[in-house]
Amino acid sequence: MASLARLTYSEEETARLAADLEAILDYVETLGEVNTEGVRPMEHVLPLETPLREDRAVAAMAPDRAVANAPVAKGFAFVVPKVIDGEEEG
Amino acid sequence: MAYEVVIGLEVHCQLRTDSKLFSPAPVSFGREPNHSVHPICLALPGVLPVLNRRAVELAVCAALATHCKVHTSSVFARKNYFYPDLPKGYQISQYEEPLATGGYIDIPAGGDADEGDGKATKRIGLTRIHMEEDAGKSIHDSEVTGRFATHVDLNRAGVPLLEIVSEPDLRSPAEAAVYLRTLRSILRYIDVSDADMEKGNFRCDANVSLREAGAREFGIRTELKNLNSFRNVELALGSEILRQAEILDDGGSVVQATMAFDPVSRRTRVLRLKENADDYRYFPDPDLIPLVISDADVDRIRDELPELAQARYQRFQDQYGLSEYDARQLTISRELAEFFETAVAAHGVAKTVANWVLRDLREALGERELEDAAVTPEQFAALLRLVDDGKLTPKSARGLVPELVESGGDPEAWMRERGLEALSDTGVIERAVDEVIAAHPDDVDRFRSGEQKVQNFLMGQVMKKTKGKADPAAVRELLTQKLGA
After folding, report:
1. Confidence band of A90 (pLDDT split at 50, 70, 90)
2. Which of A42, A57, B372, B468 is geometrically suited to a Cys-Cys bond with B395, CB 3.0 to 4.6 A?
3. What distance in Å separates the CA atoms of residue B3 and residue B271, rounded to the nearest whole number?
4. Does residue A53 belong to the interface with chain B, where contact is any CB pair within 8 Å?
5. Is the same domain home to B408 and B449?
6. Are residues B343 and B281 in the same domain?
7. Does B405 lie in the same domain as B358?
């Protein structure tokens, strides 16, 4: 899980966090005691339909503003430390 | 050992919209980095996604054209992973309740779109079709980025994609390529996507495994990512099948992995080992309420669907009296079919137009798409009329096709400018025939002693003498007349 979150922990920290997570998961498991036979999973709390937007494009935001908060930007691109080939997502 | 190849494909195709899936930023191609973004694409705090109606309609179109069941209610989910070109830290996709499921497409059987007789088809099942947003683009190792940085361009982030997942029904790389071409043709017919692989708006991932011939259980599969041309799909699958077969032959077992294909070395290599859907921690996106599509909406979209390739293939046979083969070839793409129909309207004789389109036009196009050619159907029809009227020999007309495709123009004006008019002056043709007969006494004797095929040689000599401008029918008649005498 740490690797999915791109976080690094020491061994003691890992042990402590694992114990915490166990306890959290056990607590969540109490939900399993409820009988959900025949109940549809709920995706959303309100019985609404999603509103739709017409396909009209607005002007793009100014590119210098788009990258204004980036610690490093070059030629309007965000610059990050090189991502190792092989971690790419599709 | 003999193995059976099992392939399933996941296609991502970009829907043809003006704005993005959840953001009103314009969809663009080839613009400078971050020139086509909006706070929603950048995941700035406080933004909320709002779904694009057009994208939904196009997705429903694609689902109907591929015989899928469109679900009244579908749900958007967050697919969580970390990568710099995914600013939210998740991609909005559909997971447990996709837009549509359970469709199929029929592809020409035998794994070769061009050689099929038009009759035999194989049905490939579609597991599901869902909508999702594209990620941004990461640029590595270019002159701009240098060796130690990655540049992130979010122009593409949030662009609407359709993911079309096939059943593992494909049995060879060639069949996979035919499936892709057929699917692309359908998507273009209904105008939901440009489906242009070069521009990256039609991408393919392939799952491939081997099993002992006759086995029921599937083998362990690998996933090949981001195959960006039809050729690479075939090459990558071929290479991966060989790799897996070698492992199995040595008594080893294939390790489930995600692979990349290197078109230069033509080899696949492991990107990362086994990943589970669990790793993505999918959950319904709380920012988005379920998408509800009424039966009335589905019916309206179904009524508006344009004529599909299969229907057009039938109609071309009925209406124009074309052979199954010609009808199949002409309906491979909507552009070609429409070019043909417009040219027939201008020319009149369907069979003549079909022959010239399928042979000469296609040959002149080569690898290019018809949309990229300058020739109009009316110009093409005008060229054929010149042949019909005896003003231009078929040979001269054929010579003009490549240039017509390249730049377009008025064939009749070209003919006059270049002095290509067919020789209708029988005096000139007769002189040429006489000269040829005089120059080849031996061949003439052989013909007279019964060697019929020598006439073709003599014909050729006359055509050569007249630089291909003599009407072949007139030459044949004169030759027959004079040799018979």
Report:
1. very low
2. B468
3. 25
4. yes
5. no
6. no
7. yes
Q: Which one of A52, A59, A90 has the shortest CB-CB distance to B226?
A: A90
pLDDT for B484: 74
Q: pLDDT digits over B183-196, tens only? A: 998 998 898 998 88
Residue-level pLDDT at A89: 41
| CB-based contact A81 B138, cutoff 8 Å | no
**CB proximity A40 to B under 8 Å:** no
B367 shares its domain with B446: no
Please tell me whether residues B279 and B164 are part of one structural domain: yes
Query: Are B19 and A56 an interchain contact pair (Cβ–Cβ within 8 Å)?
Result: yes
Q: Work out the number of other CB atoms within 10 angstroms of the CB of residue A66.
A: 25
pLDDT at B462: 84
Q: Which of A55, A83, A85 sits opposite B19 (nearest CB)?
A: A55
Q: Exposure pattern of B84-99 as b/e (b: 16+ CB <10 Å)?
A: bbbbbebbbbbbebbb
* Parent domain of A8: 1-34
Q: Answer yes or no: is the ipTM higher than 0.85.
A: no
In terms of Cα–Cα distance, which of B107, B117, B114 is closest to B166? Answer: B107
Domain count of the fold of chain B: 3
Chain A 8-37, residues with CB within 8 Å of chain B CB atoms: none
Domain shared by B204 and B104, yes or no: yes
**For an interface test with A, which of B19, B34, B273, B292 has the most A Cβ atoms less than 10 Å from its Cβ?**
B34
How many structural domains compose chain A?
Answer: 1
Query: Is residue A15 included in any domain, yes or no?
Result: yes
DSSP state of B66: T
Q: Which domain holds residue B370?
A: 307-417
B326 lies in some domain = yes
Contact B282, B81 (CB under 8 A): no
Contacts of B135 in chain A (CB under 8 A): 89
Q: Is residue A79 part of a domain?
A: no
Q: In the predicted model, is pLDDT for residue A86 greater than 50? A: no
Q: Which residues pair with B224 in a beta bridge?
A: B206, B259
A69 assigned to some structural domain: no
Q: Which long-range contacts (CB under 8 A, 24 or more apart) does B114-121 make?
A: B114/B329, B116/B328, B117/B324, B117/B325, B118/B313, B118/B324, B118/B325, B118/B327, B118/B328, B119/B324
B216 and B251 both lie in a single domain? yes
What span, in angstroms and rounded, lies between the C-alpha atoms of B385 and B343? 11
